[in-house]
Every structure is written in structure tokens, then in C-alpha cells.
Fold this protein.
Amino acid sequence: MTDVLVAEGLSRSFPAGDERVAAVRDVSLRVGERELVAVLGRSGAGKSSLLFLCGGLDRPDAGRVAVAGHDVTGLRGGALQRFLQRTVGWVFQSAGLLPLLSAEENVALALRLVGRPEAEVASAARSALAAVGLEERAGHRGAELSGGEQQRVALARALAKTPALLIADEPTGQLDTDTARSIMAVLRRTADAGTAVLLATHDRSAAEVADRVLLMEDGRLSR
């Protein structure tokens, strides 16, 4: 199995008054193609900080990250922006849809931002929505969708650009049990189709579909 994500010796701290608080402490992990890895821990354990480092949204104080052959910690400026747009898909706890745009338009906008040819945008957006079971809701505005539907649109938006790595930060945190299971099922199918998936959650049931579960506490990972 080819490693898509390789993180080695990551550490990150943040100022807190006159001191610094360590959010991530010397963490190393790998995620391969077709693999879903769940990082399980309570709120404040450092899960989001770790994901931000792995996906290039933050820089470590120490250590290195490589994703799909890109040395993420060495990227700057336009190279980093292109990496963020094309290589990593993100799903957060809040869907973050534009409420006046339809589900299809929200997904299509993300494709346009990564430079997908206009002739392909509409069909790719519809295919991504079909993959999460929302083809019949494609024309509904974000504000007209339920919380679970909004989260599935956010997932479709991330998947539409066919990222090498999908990062999901507490994607089921605001959802009821049945909807959360449907989101996790899509993430499982995404991994099975070849995408590396890194998931952070405090929900043990959400981690049941993972290939590996890593426990995080006080900024450290354990198995």
C-alpha cells in the first residue's frame, strides 16, 4: 500500500499569556491509499491542530509533512495555494455552504476554483452529489437543506476535485445518529475507492468503520 500522507515528528505550540501550550507533541503517522485512519480523542486533545498540520493549513514548529509526493512543510505562496486547492479535500464540523447557492452550485464553485474546465463542471458536480445520495436535492439552496444534507454537500464538494487525501474534522459532531452513520458510510466508500482518509472524532461509534484507530491525548498519539 502506497503512503499518501507521511507525517514525522510533528510538534506545534501556541502562545497562552506568558507561556506556550503544546497542542501537538512529536507526532508521527502515515495514511495509505484506500485507508481510513481515525484519530479519536476528547475535545482539546489536539486532533484539529494535528489535522491542520497534515493538510497544510498550519505549519509545525518541528517535523515534516508530505502528501502525495509534495513536501507540504516546504510549500509557500502560490505553490501552497495550488496544493490546498487540488491535493487535499476538507470536511469540517460545520458544512460552510453558501446559503443562497444551490447544492449543485456550491459544489460547482469549488470545482471552478481549482480550474476544472467549465464544460466538465456541471456533470462533475452532479456526479459528486449522486455519490452522497443527494442528486434529487441538487437544486435546493443551502439554507433549504437539513444539517445532514448540508454536511453531505460539503463532503461532495470535497470529493468532486478527486483529492489524494480527504481530511474530515469532526464531520459527524452536529448530526443525529442515523445521519452520522450515513456520513461515515460515504467516508468508508471513499477510502475503498482509493482515497486516503484521515478522520478526527470524539465519537467512538464513528471510528468503527476505520482501518486503524489512533488515540490522541494531550497532543500525543497512541494506538
In short: The helical segments are 47-54, 77-86, 103-113, 118-131, 147-160, 177-192. The mean pLDDT is 93.
